[in-house]
Design a protein that fits this description.
The structure holds 3 protein chains of 3 kinds.
Chain A lengths: L32 H15 L2 H4 L13 E9 L5 E2 L2 E2 H14 L4 E12 L4 H18 L2 E10 L7 E11 L15 E4 L5 H7 L8 E2 L9 H10 L3 E5 L5 H19 L6 E5 L7 H10 L13 E4 L4 H9 L8 E7 L6 E4 L5 E3 L13
Chain B lengths: L3 E12 L2 E8 L2 E6 L11 E5 L2 E5 L2 H13 L4 H12 L3
Antiparallel strand pairs in B: 1-2, 1-4, 2-3, 4-5
Chain C lengths: L9 H14 L4 E5 L2 H10 L9 E5 L4 H4 L2 H11 L4 E5 L13 H6 L3 E4 L3 H10 L4 E8 L4 H13 L5 E8 L1 H10 L7 E5 H7 L4 H8 L3 E4 L3 H17 L4 E3 L11 H10 E8 L3 E10 L8 H4 L15 H5 L23 H4 L4 H7 L3
Parallel strand pairs in C: 1-2, 1-7, 3-4, 3-5, 5-6, 7-8, 8-9
Antiparallel strand pairs in C: 6-11, 10-11
Helix pairs in contact in C: 1-11, 6-7, 7-12
The chains are: A alpha+beta, B alpha+beta, C alpha/beta.
């Protein structure tokens, strides 16, 4: 009898699942039995609706009245769970909000998941439940989905893509070309909540604070706003890159559209003192040397509105929880063309530039 | 350099022989090394840079500075004029 | 926030600014040494409130701008090593080396992590015994005590996998060098308040006397800066040159003795090359021999590639105040915040970046 070589089996794990899987394995993305289990166990119960339950290769949707709006967004956030929410809420609210910025009410959503091998299934369940709740609250149905699995180390747990289809009501025509000097810049609430909530959990930058992400669906707020006044020129949701990025984009877009029509470009001037920031968020920004104008938001919008309608618009916005801290933060001006400036609290002026890349904490 | 902001010492403890504390910066609490301020006490205010308390804020001195500013006499109407020029659109 | 909000009072700021405008009877140029002060000046628009006669020259007080190119290159080299977790303050990630920056290394798969405190790097070393944790220990005298304590703690906890690239710069020799440089236009200095909270004020009277310049130790909030400027102008108008402490709530004459003791133990003076300016004698700190085991530059052999500054970059002259950013031929062309050639375009308070964003 030959000597058997001694093999250590302790590190061995079977790449197929015995059905009692606690973690995502590569097989879950294979389209076969395991993928089917995910659909049955997690996605259908969470998103269940007649369209999805047909489990066709594509969803056939009912006829929608009027102009359609469509938007897609991918969600990549670390950590997956943070005070105030998770990647799940972001994935639904983010796309609902993108569509809301065209004045559209989202009807249908798709959800594509890229899961990292090793993701605990309970995490996927939590995320999906969060998406389902957000979708229900926003009156949206998830009608199509996809799941792929990538090898351990090739993803941050979960990446989600959602594409939304919505309807733009008649008469709604939001267009940067309509922006005029004298228009008011309105912000729906406090800045930097989301970015700082996530930052508070980042390794090395961590701190304890009562800061929660502001993730929220804004379509209801937009409907109220469009009903309250006629003079809303444009809506924008300041996510990555913050209000600074959105305002710079607005100033550029408006100037380009006006130039094309043979008109003078415009700029935007904001009033630092008028920008609402929650006290703990302001402190967290001070600590890390970050400018709230450059930090991400997930439940806020900017509106450019005719100057004389700002008051009425604010009243309408403040009647809703998502708009309770709405404020006029600035004006559209004639100069400097295409740029954004801010009046500082002590009466000086500064330029609000388009941020180059991710904002990093500083010591300087 | 040197981004350092004031915070209030809430708690003091030792971590493996090093003096540490929890400092409250207007609602944000962070753990800070207090090794360089052996005499500082709970309730004191300190300036913190990159996770280290480097100086105690002297309350009396702060009060004095603000008092000297207040003495910078300007007639109320001159102040109104100054405020008004800020609001003039460009 | 207490001790912050009161020093941002808009009415008091206007009064101080008015007082400055009223008291300056001829042109004066004041240099603030600290990058944090430059940041606050630009953020609050303070330099626009001072009137025609008072000019602020932004000094080389930003470690981002002045850390030698060779140090950046070494950091990049070390950060690219697979066994290394490279830790750095956020400011340094986009500073251009000869060929690329730390952010690029991260993009290529290097484990580069932003830390808020050097203690985070020490913690990472304890948690990752199978990796080499390297910390980029830069900064002025304000940051040096934190970096020194981190190294001391790593030593006392036996963290053999921890090391640091130490490259500190010192303010007083810089002030001296600036005053000696030809074409120097500085009439008075605002000294760096937090540097002085560590080092005290005793290093400045000699500089005052030698160069006959007022030196006002100044804080960072709008009222602190305006008060520092006001006192500097008052001295200049009266023909005085003294050290004044306008940040007394934080700065004492002796500074922080405990910090100074640890600094003397962990670091030793060295001639330091300031990027864009040149070598200033005894203007830096390096790791003392006693802590050589924690010197990352010794632990990781150099690849030997020469440090090459872009020939188009004039950061040095900008830092010394002898060239305005918009007078540089590369400004806005080859050199922009998106494609910076030198550190003064990368840093949020670098003069070049400030000019670019202000549309000058």
């Amino acid at each position: 009898m030959s000597e058997r070589a001694s093999i250590d089996f302790s590190g061995f794990s079977c790449p197929t699942s015995d059905g009692s899987a606690e973690r995502i394995v590569l097989g879950h993305g294979g389209g076969g039995l395991l993928s089917g289990e995910l659909i049955e166990r997690i996605f259908l119960p969470a998103f269940g609706n007649p369209v999805l339950e047909r489990l066709g290769d594509s969803a056939v949707l009912e006829e929608l009245p009027g102009r359609l709006a469509c938007s897609t967004d991918s969600f990549v956030v670390r950590p997956l769970f943070f005070p105030g929410g998770s990647i799940g809420e972001l994935a639904v609210n983010g796309t609902v909000n993108d569509l809301a910025m065209s004045g559209a009410v989202t009807r249908f959503l798709t959800a594509g998941f890229i899961l990292e091998e090793g993701l605990p299934i309970v995490d996927l369940e939590r995320i999906t439940a969060a998406m389902a709740a957000a979708a229900a609250a926003a009156g949206v149905r998830v009608v199509a989905g996809d799941t792929k699995v990538v090898e351990r180390g090739h993803g941050d747990g979960v990446y989600i893509n959602t594409t939304g289809i919505g309807v733009v009501p008649e008469g709604v025509d939001l267009d940067a070309g309509r922006i005029e000097p004298g228009d008011a810049v309105v912000l729906s609430g406090t800045l930097a909540d989301h970015g700082m909530a996530v930052m508070s959990l980042r390794e090395g930058l961590g701190f304890e604070a009562e800061i929660a992400s502001d993730t929220a669906a804004l379509h209801g707020l937009v409907v109220e706003m469009l009903a309250a006044v006629d003079g809303i020129r444009l809506l924008r949701d300041p996510t990555r890159g913050g209000v600074a990025t959105s305002l710079n984009e607005i100033a550029s877009l408006a100037s380009a559209a006006r130039r094309a029509a043979g008109r003078e470009p415009v700029g935007i001037e904001i009033d630092d003192a008028a920008v609402p920031v929650a006290p703990a968020v302001a402190s967290a920004c001070e600590l890390l040397g970050l400018d709230p104008l450059l930090v991400a938001n997930e439940g806020k919008l900017l509106a450019i509105v005719a100057g004389d309608e700002a008051g009425r618009l604010l009243e309408a916005m403040r009647s809703r929880p998502e708009g309770r801290n709405a404020a006029v933060i600035g004006r559209v001006t004639r100069r400097p063309a295409g740029k954004v400036t801010a009046r500082t609290p002590i009466g000086g002026s500064r330029v609000v530039p388009l941020p180059v890349g991710e904002q990093l904490p500083r010591i300087c | 350099m040197c981004l350092a902001i004031p915070g209030r010492i809430g708690e003091i403890y030792e971590d493996r022989g090093t003096r540490m504390g929890k400092v409250d910066f207007g609602g944000v609490v962070k753990e800070v090394c207090l090794a360089y301020l052996p005499e500082i006490e709970v309730g004191d205010y300190t300036i913190v840079h990159v996770g280290f308390a480097i100086s105690r804020i002297d309350e009396e001195s702060a009060r004095q500075t603000l008092a000297t500013f207040a003495e910078l006499g300007l007639l109320e109407e001159e102040l109104e004029e100054l405020r008004a020029t800020d609001e003039t659109p460009p | 926030m207490k001790y912050l909000t009161e020093y941002r009072n808009a009415d008091t700021a206007r009064r101080l600014a008015a007082e400055i405008r009223r008291s300056a009877t001829r042109p004066w140029a004041i240099m603030e040494v600290c990058g944090g002060q430059t940041h606050s000046i630009i953020r609050n628009g303070i330099d626009q409130l001072l009137g025609e006669d008072v000019e602020m020259i932004h000094g080389p007080g930003c470690p981002v701008c002045v850390t030698p190119l060779s140090v950046i290159d070494r950091a990049i080299e070390i950060a690219a090593r697979p066994e290394v977790i490279f830790c750095s303050f956020g400011d340094m990630l986009r500073v251009p080396g000869s060929r690329e920056n730390l952010f690029d290394v991260k993009g290529r798969g290097g484990d580069v992590r932003v830390v808020y405190s050097p203690l985070d790097a020490v913690r990472l070393a304890a948690e990752n015994p199978d990796r080499e944790v390297v910390f980029l220990a830069i900064g002025f005298e304000t940051t040096a005590p934190a970096n020194a304590m981190a190294i001391k703690l790593a030593a006392s906890r036996g963290l053999a996998n921890f090391s640091a690239i130490v490259s500190h710069v010192l303010v007083p020799p810089a002030i001296d060098a600036i005053m000696r440089s030809p074409g120097c236009r500085v009439d008075a200095f605002l000294a760096a308040g937090h540097v002085c909270s560590v080092m005290g004020t005793w290093q400045y009277p000699d500089l005052c006397r030698t160069h006959r310049v007022p030196i006002v130790i100044t804080g960072f909030e709008p009222l602190d800066l305006l008060e520092g400027i006001r006192r500097a102008i008052a001295q200049l108008e009266a023909g005085r040159y003294e050290v004044e402490n306008a940040y007394a709530r934080v700065v004492t004459d002796e500074g922080n003795r405990e910090a100074q003791a640890v600094l003397a133990e962990v670091f030793e003076p060295v001639d330091r090359a300031w990027r864009g300016i040149g070598t200033i004698p005894a203007s830096g700190w390096q790791l003392a021999e006693a802590y050589a085991a924690f010197n990352a530059q010794r632990r990781f052999p150099a690849a030997g590639q020469p440090a090459e500054e872009s020939p188009l970059c004039h950061s040095g002259e900008v830092l010394q105040g002898t060239l305005k950013p918009n007078e540089c031929p590369a400004f806005g062309r080859e050199c922009t915040p998106r494609t910076p050639l030198g550190a003064t375009m990368v840093s949020s308070e670098g003069a070049c970046a400030a000019y670019f964003h202000a549309g000058r």
